[in-house]
Design a protein that fits this description.
Distance between the termini: 43 Å
Structural class: mainly alpha
Low-confidence stretches: none
Amino acid sequence: MAGNSLVRRLWQLCNLLMATFFGLAAAVQVNDPDAGLWVVIYLVPAALTLLVGLNPSVTENAVWRSLCDLHSAGCIFGTIALACSLVAYTQGNILHEEEGRELLGLVIITIWMSLCRSSAKNPLGGIHLTAAVLVVLFPFVSWLYIYVNKEMRESWPTHCKTVI
């Protein structure tokens, strides 16, 4: 029973950290030319994830699931569109392209929303919880890497350089 409580607390903590990440990702969009779109793209999972962090059983709610499914479908569509654009036009590291970073954000959202959605059916544990912890760590480690690696930011547009 104590192990189950620990798993539940870890899942809630993961959701609170991801809600924070999505909120921060929305906040750094202020300089972007299409900020309105990206703020919404990040604030929706921030809100959905915060709700899961506060009350994991919310994933059983039909409204929560519908919003999650609709937003995930939009993110999958955006991922495909950005991936096609990157394949056609990118010549180097996709993280050096704004579209590559946007694509990565959409992939993170889609994976996280999928983990949240599946937590309603199956209690998280084992591989799902491990995946959740890894997904939580990835954006924060990536941001730290980008912050430390100044060379990576040199080719970025001005609106991307002034946020970090």
